Amino acid sequence: xxxxxxxxxxxxxxxxxxxxxxxxxxxxxxxxxxxxxxxxxxxxxxxxxxxxxxxxxxxxxxxxxxxxxxxxxxxxxxxxxxxxxxxxxxxxxxxxxxxxxxxxxxxxxxxxxxxxxxxxxxxxxxxxxxxxxxxxxxxxxxxxxxxxxxxxxxxxxxxxxxxxxxxxxxxxxxxxxxxxxxxxxxxxxxxxxxxxxxxxxxxxxxxxxxxxxxxxxxxxxxxxxxxxxxxxxxxxxxxxx
Length: 241
Prior knowledge:
By secondary structure, this protein is mostly beta strands. The chain has two domains: 2-13 and 106-238, no CATH class; 19-103, SH3 Domains (SH3 type barrels, Roll), CATH 2.30.30. Helices cover 8% and strands 45% of the residues. The protein has two helices and 21 strands. It has a six-stranded mixed beta sheet, with no helix packed on it. The longest helix is centred in the N-terminal third of the chain and has 13 residues, at 2-14. The chain is globular. It starts with a helix and ends with a strand.
């Protein structure tokens, strides 16, 4: 178990996307097709949405010092209790003054850490994350006409029928409230372990819970944004550029 724990920590350190939130008093910022102010607007990012820098385009193609290449979802699902940013992604540009990298935000400390349980806290909030071996009998597994697996009716991520892990629970405790993140927000997300998590204090009272999940070509990030002690959004983005 200790060996697995150390291996998980090693891969967590080397397989992370550069994740960001916006920095704009208007609550949103426009995504441009090219790295200049006059370029066509092709999308927008909002507060409470986490997104990734497109590291390949940024390193190999972007010649601007003032604009950053980012990945953003083509569409998002707003017909849920929380916003879901996931699926097909495009690349666009944000001015560097309009974003903040999570790495530069205040990070929660870890007071307890094992492979399947981690407690994060700051002065006001304690967040306990637990994972477990994926228990197939507790889920309905089907296969779509297009060949991908469904778990409880939703497309499975990082599932190929083999042994996997799943998120067991995410519990947020503050002085005046306790909140459990709904299982519907993570029941189809596999190869996610508690040890591979970090938590950052976002804008206002937003809290960003980051999982580095999957493996190999199936590596991906899950980010839950908690706002006012409720799940506001879930972002899924590929770790591999």
